[in-house]
Design goal:
Helix content: over 70%
Order of helices and strands: H
Structural class: mainly alpha
Radius of gyration: 16 Å
Number of domains: 1
Length: 40
């Protein structure tokens, strides 16, 4: 991210937020995949 010119004031907090977003997206994807399997 730093290579793209994005600056963080609190790097540790930024890492936590990015991990939270990643886990949220992963959970969201798994949830939808389960729904698709159940529909079939």
């Amino acid at each position: 991210m730093k290579s793209r010119g994005i600056l963080f004031t609190n790097e540790e907090k930024s890492k936590e937020n990015l991990l939270d977003i990643g886990y949220f997206r992963l959970g969201f994807t798994v949830f939808h995949l389960k729904e698709l399997i159940l529909i079939k």
